[in-house]
Amino acid sequence: MRLFLLITLFSLIAGCSSGDNKAENKVVAQINKYKMTMDDIKYEFKNSPYDEAALLKTENGRKQYLDNIIEKEVLLQEAQRQGIDREKDFMKSIENYWEQALFKALLERKSREIAGLIHVYDNEIEEYYKNSGEDTPLTKIKSELREIIRQKKETDAMNAWIDELKSKSYIKVDEKALESLAAQR
To answer: What values do phi and psi take at 87, rounded to 5?
Structure first.
């Protein structure tokens, strides 16, 4: 039965086009009440770590990989059955992860936006070179200086954007509460 499931799974993955929605939603495996679809499996394969991606090249590797996916699902279901997903510490760790991921995505997006707007001109490089006291000829370090200036401009633009956001926000600090926090340490 397991071999039949694996053969079916991999033949469907190989034969499906990305536009075939019925195939994407086809149930490949069921673990208790959870129905793992072709789309779920493709997502797992696509997001597999590099060292695990090599497993997908052999039949035994694919079997092992699918078994790992099933094992992960069984463990996740057990964690949910035990209520771990509703515990305060767990919820806080998810909240922290979510905040960090959201923070990272925002800063990366803004950084790309700023990078597209920043220009470094030759006169800026020459001015920086004159003020640096550098002995190396400008022609040899011009690209390095251009990058230094670009990074400084990007950092300044990012800081200005953050300051602007803060200035538009309502922020109130309770200094007494802050002092009592310091006293507790």
So the answer is: -75, 145
In this structure, the answer to whether residues 72 and 92 fall within a common structural domain is: no
User: Using CA atoms, how far apart are residues 27 and 38, in angstroms rounded to an integer?
Assistant: 6
CA angle 112, 120, 126 (to 5 degrees): 155
**Is the same domain home to 93 and 76?**
no
Domain count across the chain: 2
Which tokens hold the place of 134? 């550098």
Q: Using an 8 Å Cβ cutoff, are 153 and 118 in contact?
A: yes
Is 175 domain-assigned? no
d(CA 11, CA 25): 15
pTM above 0.90, yes or no: no
Which range of residues forms the domain containing residue 139? 88-168
pLDDT tens-place values along the chain, 185 residues long? 443 333 444 444 444 444 456 667 888 889 999 998 988 888 887 887 776 767 777 888 878 888 888 999 999 999 999 999 999 999 999 999 999 999 999 999 999 999 999 999 999 999 999 999 888 999 999 999 999 999 999 999 999 999 999 999 999 999 998 888 877 86
